[in-house]
Amino acid sequence: MSDVAIICIVFCVLMVMGVPIYAVVGFSVAVALHYADIPQTMLAQTAFTALQPFPLLSIPLFVLAGRLMEKGGMATHLIRIATSLVGAYKGSLGLVTVIACAFFAALNGSGPATTAAVGSVTIPTMLKEGYSRRYAGAVAASAGALGSLIPPSNLMVIYALVAEVSIPRMFFAGIIPGILVTALLLLTAWWIAARNGYGGRGEPFAWNPLLRALWAGKWAVGAPLVILGGIYTGVFTPTEAAGVAVAYALFVGLFVYKELNATSILEALRFTALIAGLLVLITPTTAFGQVLALYNLPERTIELLGPIVQNKWLFLLAVGTFLILIGTFMESLAQIILFTPVLLPAAMKAGIDPITFGIFTVLTCEIGFLTPPVGGNLFIGARLAKASVEQISVAVIPFCVAYILGMAFVVALPQVVVWLPNLVFGVGK
Question: Which of 224, 335, 346, 403 is deepest in the core (most CB within 10 A)?
């Protein structure tokens, strides 16, 4: 039996046993180093250097900023703006949830955090107005996944570091697909609500309530303008933008809306520490990527895929199916770090731009947020709606179709995905 076969068996057996993914990867790397006769100290050295890239700091900072904005009242103001914008249409609160998640995604960078921030406000309101628990939890979970597609996005930061592409280019590339998927989610939410007779009881749309909500929430609306505007104009880097976001959230929460206090700040820090703990995955998975290169696995993958690599449509269909299936039981962070070094060379061989492939990969991860047994958004939506995960899992299926259509858009019109990055930064820069 070959070394590669033994390593694969060890990896699969540990996964089936339910061993944490970072331990699975770390032990598999240790086995690979043993067979390659490389000192085990390489694992420790790689683990140390893996966490050195400065842009990694943006992930806990964006999470902290999002939590502070939620606790400081900015999320509530965004929801009021969305409510005034939608009016008394069928499924109005579902539409509000989608729009509010899209707004909050531009502040947060995390799918589960977006679901928790917006869903904690809109789900109880939907239940009071007669929406089903399944629908309320499903629309919040599905729209919350926009936190990973609409910039700034933690998954985009990780992909950019692994693929060695520009983080601002990745952020720009997510704008058009993010708007498209938001529109598809709005259409899906309206269709389901219309079939079931949900909503339509609020005040009809009028300019005065919207303008009042915009004025009251001007500091919340200004947050993405400051954060993303600073990145896109080159005033500060994405990592510096994350620090600015934290400072902005503290200032607004403490001195403008005055809803932040010592307890909520400590809770936000605790939440950030728990989320940032996922970065421990980076240490063994970086070493795993080096082992893959050592065993020429990317080249072997290209050879194995053979004719599929020659046809980018077939290649993306195969990769999309694979990543969606993997996403049912693997964290999105691990999924990107593990499979990008293997699949990206094959994607480039098929003539796919690395930025386009990154957006495609993030979309598959968003579907992973919505599929059991690991889907983080499912559990948050189910808990907030006080429904079972099984009920929410069935209810999100139409919303998953919206994300699949977004993937189809990326496949069919990749030039549209890279149009904004190329316009701002130039082709290939």
Answer: 403
CA–CA distance, 334 with 105 (Å, rounded to integer): 21
The residue ranges of every structural domain in the chain are 39-425
Q: Residue 276's CB: how many other CB atoms inside 10 A?
A: 16
Cα separation of 380 and 34, whole Å?
A: 41
Alpha-carbon span 250 to 230, nearest angstrom = 18
Q: Give, in order, the Cα–Cα distances in Å from 332 to each of 23, 125, 266, 288, 395.
A: 16, 30, 27, 16, 21
The Cα 93–Cα 126 span in angstroms is 6
- Measured CA to CA, the distance from residue 218 to residue 255 in angstroms comes to 14
Which among 179, 103, 189, 184 is positioned nearest to 139, based on CA atoms?
189
First to last CA, the chain: 45
Over its C-alpha atoms, the chain yields an Rg (Å, rounded) of: 22
Give tens-digit pLDDT for 336-363: 888 888 889 888 888 899 999 999 999 9
Residues 49-83: tens digit of each pLDDT: 766 677 778 888 888 888 888 888 888 888 888 87
Strand extents, DSSP E, 331-415: none
Q: Which residue do the tokens 């955090």 mark?
A: 113
Contact between 333 and 361 (Cβ < 8 Å): no
